[in-house]
Design goal:
It is a single chain. The chain is an alpha+beta fold. Among the domains are: 46 residues, no CATH class; 153 residues, L,D-transpeptidase catalytic domain-like (Beta Barrel), CATH 2.40.440. The chain has a 7-stranded mixed β-sheet, with no helix packed on it. Strand 7 and strand 8 form a beta hairpin. It is elongated, with a radius of gyration of 52 Å.
Amino acid sequence: MSVPLAPHRRRALPVVILAGALQALPTLAPAVPPLRAAADLPVGVLIAQQGESLPPAQGVDPETLRKLEKQAEKEKARQEKEMRNAAERERKRLDKERQAQEKAMRGHPKPTSSSEPQVRAATPVQPQAPPRILAAIWSQLVPSKKITSLVIHVRQQKLYVYQGKKLAAIAPICTGNATHPTPMGRFTIIQKDRNHLSSRYGCFVDNATGRIVDANAIIGQHAPPGTHYEAAEMPHFLRITSDGVGLHGGYLPGYAASHGCIRLPKSFASEIFESVPDGTPVSIVE
């Protein structure tokens, strides 16, 4: 029995059209580049740049992505380290150049131009009441005022002079040595003698040359042949004890070396002698 063909043709036409549309779909879709394998990606490139991470890609497992991110972080840290090292090398190079230039300038000072005026030291102007500075002595003593107290610091080897409550002078001293220490405590000036001679200590002097043979002689000690005993000079003597301890002008070696007295610079001893009245308190502290 024959079947009419017209109805079959009408059913087949939509099928043919649908098949043609499906074949055209690949050409209409946008082109998507194939995913590159992890081994083909350069280390640290396009991964985690500017704080961004890779978008999820089909076909790449999370473990591979984590490895790539770690590689990118390592590469970024390496580049930053190289930049810091380069900056440090440049800084050191500039420092060396600057030091070399400064050294060259010190070795070859800039000559003074003939057109520049010559600098001449100004004549110092004396103030109305300048503090006098002697050798190792600071003094602002007022000659018209009496000295009211003296303070001796054995460890400092210094004398502090007061006029009222004002510190008027500081001078170096020489106190007693370990064998003949200067007594500590509070004393007063009990005697003043401008040309005093020690009643206990002196020296042996050569009769022919006048040279001192022994500077640590004691009165009553037998003099060596050809010598004689001379009592130690204690100019501008200010006695503070009955057994001979006092302040006077003498030699200052820079350390404690006397037989118990307090030696002062000779010029300073003569200066304060008249301004120290009998009964002036004297404190000797360690």
